[in-house]
Design a protein that fits this description.
The chain is α+β, with helices and mostly antiparallel strands. It has two domains: about 30 residues; about 110 residues, PH-domain like (Roll), CATH 2.30.29. It contains two helices and seven strands. The protein has a four-stranded antiparallel beta sheet with strand order 1-2-3-4, with helices on one face. Strands 5-6-7 form a three-stranded antiparallel beta sheet, with helices on one face. Strand 2 and strand 3 form a beta hairpin. The longest helix has 29 residues.
């Protein structure tokens, strides 16, 4: 009788470990870094980013906020021409980035970026906006 109980406990323990390993693999796969040169990932230690950290990709034409979920993902894109302002709120450990749009929609809010990533994100957005409007203005004259 004791060996049956011992065997059952071993099977349950092994099954539990397999389930935990599968959950860990799903979280790791969902939290992998997006492709691209300028991708900024939030810290898992910040609020709302423990399992699936939010990522922000900045390209010369768009800003993409990507948040993985258990099923699917949440993705929001803003064209560089629609960015009105970028605000960085620096706290003790992490920075929050708020990207306001000119279209009247809700701003993009990202919590938990490293301070240097937040500053670099703002610098890139300003640089790409200058390039976008500089090239556009130069072609009209």
């Amino acid at each position: 009788m004791a060996t049956d109980t011992h065997s059952l406990l071993m099977w349950l323990l092994g099954g539990g470990l397999v389930v935990l390993a599968l959950l860990g693999a799903v979280v790791a796969a969902r939290g992998r870094r997006m492709a691209g040169e300028h991708v900024f990932q939030t810290s898992r230690w910040s609020r709302g980013n423990h399992l699936f950290p939010t990522q922000v990709a900045v390209t010369p034409t768009t800003i993409v906020q990507y948040t993985p979920q258990w099923f699917g993902r949440r993705e929001q894109s803003i064209h560089m021409a629609h960015v009105a302002s970028v605000e960085i709120d620096t706290n003790l450990f992490f920075s929050n980035v708020v990207i306001e749009t000119s279209g009247g929609s809700d701003p993009v809010r990202c919590h938990g970026h490293r301070k240097r990533d937040a500053v670099e994100m703002k610098r890139l957005i300003n640089e790409y906006q200058t390039q976008y409007y500089g090239n556009r203005g130069g072609s009209q004259s």
